[in-house]
Amino acid sequence: MILDNIVNSDKYIGLHPRFAKAFEYIKNLDLATLDVGKTEIDGRDLHVAVSAKEGTTADVAKFECHNNYIDIQFCPSGTEKIGWKPRHKCVEPVDAYNPEKDVTFFKDQPDTYFDFHAGDFAIFFPEDVHAPMLGEGIIRKLVVKVKI
């Protein structure tokens, strides 16, 4: 997992061939008029989902990871808390891996939590089990899915 602010995103573009395009997309958004929904940036290899949903608590949050995509999660405004734990320490899957949605959910609890503020991003690799959308009120979120 990587946690940083968008002003430092150029440090990470060498980690994956699609990261440069993903961060360019984020930096060029008009965050004030960001519409909820899904958009393809480069077909299914690089796409984004924008959501605005009621925050949840740690005891009911979805604790998830992915096999075929890297998440770049970006906080356009407000705050959010996210839980994290390395995948090798998660031992209680809810169900089997869902290949259609590229997700495995776990009953385990995060080892650590961090606060996410406007302009912050987190990169979650397949090794990173994460519990997003923790907080109160409506949480606006942008998730860029990067095909491995």
How would you portray this structure in words?
The chain is mainly beta. The chain is built from one helix and eleven strands; from the N terminus they run βαββββββββββ. The strands form three sheets. The chain has a six-stranded antiparallel beta sheet, covered by helices on one side. A three-stranded antiparallel beta sheet has the order 8-6-10, with no helix packed on it. The longest helix is centred in the N-terminal third of the chain and has 9 residues, at 19-27. The two termini are 15 Å apart. A hairpin with a 5-residue loop joins strand 2 and strand 3 (46-54). The chain is globular and about 40 Å long. The model has no long low-confidence stretch (mean pLDDT 95). 6% of the residues lie in helices and 43% in strands.
Number of strands: 11
Strand content: 35-45%
The largest sheet, given as strand count, sense and whether it forms a barrel, is: 6 strands, antiparallel
Overall geometry comes to globular
Q: Compute the gyration radius: what is it?
A: 14 Å
Percent helix, as a range, is under 10%
What is the end-to-end distance? Answer: 15 Å
Oligomeric organization of the protein chains: single chain
Q: What is the spatial order of strands in the main beta sheet?
A: 1-9-5-11-3-2
Counting helices, strands and paired strands, the structural category is: mainly beta
